[in-house]
């Protein structure tokens, strides 16, 4: 085998409790993967160790200058006991795009896939079987060099941690209400909006909190230059069914290259839908609402998969979408995509990858 | 005393070596300050402990969602053995502005000042005496709650670490050459550009690296909307002497509220200079260069204090400023400000604060 990782097994495995009512991302498995980087030496010393706190110098660059990226994907247990991953190679490709943008050295694709495979083999029993659950996989890189100076780090840690999860939103697949944000801006062309880097998420917290206080679950971000064009919803990509077409904002440099977004586009086209990736103004959506041609709206992301939008609040007006109910297309996409991810539906796209021991 | 912090002294103090030739921000003193935050309990358990690695869950929010802020200030040793701090109350005020923007609970000003005082009393012997050196103070807050979900953390650590430093740039007070960045964008109105948060610094790394590869020390950032108006230089504010006036970009929401910037404006006005805080286009600076009215340019920041600009590269044109030499006003500001900071010059502004045991 090309990659030999040292494996240290936990002496005190945790009890695997039911995920009913659990909060997303609060439980972790017994082991994690770590890989170190030192300038001159490259990535080295890949190892699987018991899940445990990590120890960093207080001057580590991640704390001060935010040089970090992450990924997110899910592993599912099929009814016949196989473990399926959804498009893991897309995650490592995107992770290296994020790495390049954040001046972090790239990680070999095969090494990533083998690390993920070996970790999941060790943690196979942690892939949950309850309805609507999965094992959320969080690979991430942090800059660890202890220097107070703004420059790329000479040392990093790449880690993979695993969290057994239920639904991301407490609403589940029920429609969420969305506040269209006209004041705060998430990203701008020339910035880091399309990288999965920590700072993009920190930048959205205040708007998110203010929207929550107004009774909305998520924020819809408009472009940072003209504040007219739709970018993302919270930490998801967003789609609108306008008349007979499905429209989603084009990848313009400030929008995340969502893997669920890409999957939804492929699936819709496979079903014969016309999908437009283009600039889409909030005004166009509001006009469609007024004309009765705004049929559905939904967010897409690894955590929630498909999140129907039941209401959009923009400039003083609350617009109900599909009378606040989950739309047929949102439901069909959710069912097909999660069915395919769990091996219960056909996968004509070759997206699922079975875990091999 | 209002704030009683537990003090644990290091059993193995380090040797204090000469700072000649040392790299900024790579050495740390024997102790650090830590304060914890838990939702419902508030900030608690302030303590001074030996400088040591910190231990965090790999799911700590700072690694994934970048919820963190920092500050920077300096302590100086006077020739008669006193320790002077420069405008520390401005730092805690700005820190709480950053905290508010990043949805981090604010920190009591008096607690901050007392923590800083007690830590500096313990570390008094670490304030270096060599020419051009100081003790750099780095307060920072990191989100420590171990949850993979995009929402403000329920737990934080506030820490102060100390680093004895020489010059920030290897050029010292010699002029730096600056690449005016037309492609990458640092910040945008509605974003987090005026917060001292990690993500703003990570966002600048790639542009900085590319500028370095072209032979430039720093990047000059233009506004993210029109890409016309000057914002900052690297991690400094920037000033231009245009004819008889001094011009600096106004605080517009995406520019850092520099304490050195504010000090320079006050000092210049005190000396009778006309200072304009306004929108300033790069075209206006280039025109001034062509007309011979671009007299000087310099950056201002805590780390470098005053950093003269010897060359600006913009749209294919390399513009020498003051024939590439340190300008008279840059030198005067550097001498007066560092003289005042070290207690060698009069302080008509009441900026220096003496450390009381």
TrEMBL record, chains A, B:
Pathway: Amino-acid biosynthesis; L-valine biosynthesis; L-valine from pyruvate: step 4/4; Amino-acid biosynthesis; L-isoleucine biosynthesis; L-isoleucine from 2-oxobutanoate: step 4/4; Amino-acid biosynthesis; L-leucine biosynthesis; L-leucine from 3-methyl-2-oxobutanoate: step 4/4. Keywords: Amino-acid biosynthesis, Aminotransferase, Branched-chain amino acid biosynthesis, Pyridoxal phosphate, Transferase. Its EC number is 2.6.1.42. Its cofactor is pyridoxal 5'-phosphate. One of its GO terms (molecular function) is branched-chain-amino-acid transaminase activity. Transmembrane segments: none annotated. The modification N6-(pyridoxal phosphate)lysine is found at residue 196. It catalyses: L-isoleucine + 2-oxoglutarate = (S)-3-methyl-2-oxopentanoate + L-glutamate; L-leucine + 2-oxoglutarate = 4-methyl-2-oxopentanoate + L-glutamate; L-valine + 2-oxoglutarate = 3-methyl-2-oxobutanoate + L-glutamate. One of its GO terms (biological process) is L-valine biosynthetic process. Pfam families: Aminotran_4. It is an enzyme of class 2 (transferase). Belongs to the class-IV pyridoxal-phosphate-dependent aminotransferase family. This is Branched-chain-amino-acid aminotransferase. It comes from Paenibacillus albicereus.
């Amino acid at each position: 085998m090309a990659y030999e990782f040292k494996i240290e097994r936990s002496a005190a495995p945790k009890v695997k409790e039911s995920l009913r009512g659990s909060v997303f991302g609060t439980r972790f498995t017994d082991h994690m993967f770590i890989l170190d980087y030192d300038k001159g030496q490259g990535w080295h010393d890949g190892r699987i160790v018991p899940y445990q706190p990590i120890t960093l110098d207080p001057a580590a660059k991640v704390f001060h200058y935010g040089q970090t990226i992450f990924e997110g994907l899910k592993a599912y247990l099929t009814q016949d006991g196989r473990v399926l991953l959804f498009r893991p190679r897309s995650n490592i490709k995107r992770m290296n795009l994020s790495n390049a943008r954040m001046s972090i050295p790239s990680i070999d694709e095969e090494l990533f896939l083998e690390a993920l495979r070996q970790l999941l083999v060790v943690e196979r029993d942690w892939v949950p079987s309850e309805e609507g659950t999965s094992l959320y996989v969080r690979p991430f890189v942090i800059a660890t060099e202890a220097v107070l100076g703004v420059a790329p780090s000479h040392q990093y840690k790449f880690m993979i941690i695993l969290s057994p999860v239920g639904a991301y939103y407490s609403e589940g697949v029920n429609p969420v209400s969305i506040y269209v944000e006209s004041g705060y801006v998430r990203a701008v062309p020339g910035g880091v909006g399309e990288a999965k880097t920590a700072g993009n998420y920190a930048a959205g917290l205040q708007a998110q909190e203010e929207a929550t206080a107004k009774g909305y679950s998520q924020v819809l971000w408009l472009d940072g230059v003209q504040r007219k064009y739709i970018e993302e919803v919270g930490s998801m990509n967003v789609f609108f069914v306008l008349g007979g077409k499905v429209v989603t904002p084009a990848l313009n440099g400030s929008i995340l290259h969502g893997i669920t977004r890409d999957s939804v586009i492929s699936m819709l086209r496979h079903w014969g839908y016309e999908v437009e990736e283009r600039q889409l103004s909030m005004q166009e959506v509001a006009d469609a609402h007024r004309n009765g041609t705004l049929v559905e709206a939904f967010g897409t992301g690894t955590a929630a998969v498909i999140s129907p939008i039941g209401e959009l609040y923009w400039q003083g007006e609350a617009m109900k979408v599909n009378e606040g109910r989950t739309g047929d297309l949102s439901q069909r996409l959710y069912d097909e995509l999660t069915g395919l991810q769990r091996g219960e539906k056909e996968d004509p796209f070759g997206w699922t990858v079975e875990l091999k021991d």
